[in-house]
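REQUEST ID: PR-0412
SUBMITTED BY: lab tech R.K.
PRIORITY: routine
TASK: structure prediction, single protein chain
INPUT:
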Amino acid sequence: MEVWVTFDSNVWESIVDENKRANSDEVYTQLFHLIQSKIITPFFFEGIATIETMKNSERKAYIANFKGAYSIAIDGEEISSSKGSKAPELTEYLASMIPKALELGFRFTKLPRVGAPALDIDEKYLAPDVRHDLGDRLERSFKCLRFIESLGAGRNHLMKQLPEVEGGLIQRTKADNNLSDKKYAKSVGEWVDGDALAASYGYGIDYFCTNDRASSAGQTSIFYHENLKKLESKYPVNVITPEDLICNVKTNASQFK
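STATUS: complete
OUTPUT:
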C-alpha cells in the first residue's frame, strides 16, 4: 500500500544527504529505502526553496520590497507585464540537496499566497492533484490554513506583530520599525510551518513527518502540543515522528501481505 508523506526539513535532509544519513540514527536509512522501494511517496513544501532558503537577516527586507508578477491584457493582447521579484537564491547546500531529493522521488507541495515568492519549477516536480482536484485541494488547504491562523499560529502570529496600516503583509512589513530581523525571521519560520501543514492536508497526504516539538517557539507555533491537538481534531494533518512513521508503515504493510 502506497503511503504519501510530507517531510519537514529536519527529516528530509537526513534522508537525502548521504553524509547526514550515515552519521544519524538508522531510522533515516530505513526511510531512504522505503522511499527508494516506492512504499513511501515523499513530498516537501515549496517554502524550503523560497522563504526558508533566505538568511534570517534577509527575510524582512525581501518581503518588504517584494513585487508580485503580473500581466495586463486588452482583447487578448498583452499591454503590460512584470516577472516581479526574483526568487531568493538557494543556499549552496539546498542547491546540491534538492536535485538529489527530486531524483529520489520527492515532489513539491504548493500553497499560493499573495505577497509570497512562488516556486518556479518544471511541473513534473510538483505534487499531483490526484487525490483532490485543484479547486478542491485549494479549498481544503485554505480552510485548514484559516483554522491554523485562528489559533494565533502560522502567518497570523507575524501579522499581529506588525503595524496596522492599510495594506497586506508587504505594506505592513515596510512600515514596521520595531521587529528585529531575528524576530521577524523566526515568525516567518512559523508562517512556513503553518502553510506546509495546510498544503499537506489540502493534497490529501497521509502524514506530515517532523522532529519539531516547538521547543523554542512555544504557543505561537502550530507544533505546540495544544495547538496541534486542536488542529488534528478538526483537520487530521497526521503529524508524526520518523520513528512512528516507520512503525505505522511496517504495520500497514504486514496487514496487506
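NOTES: The two ends are 10 Å apart (CA to CA).
REVIEWED BY: pending
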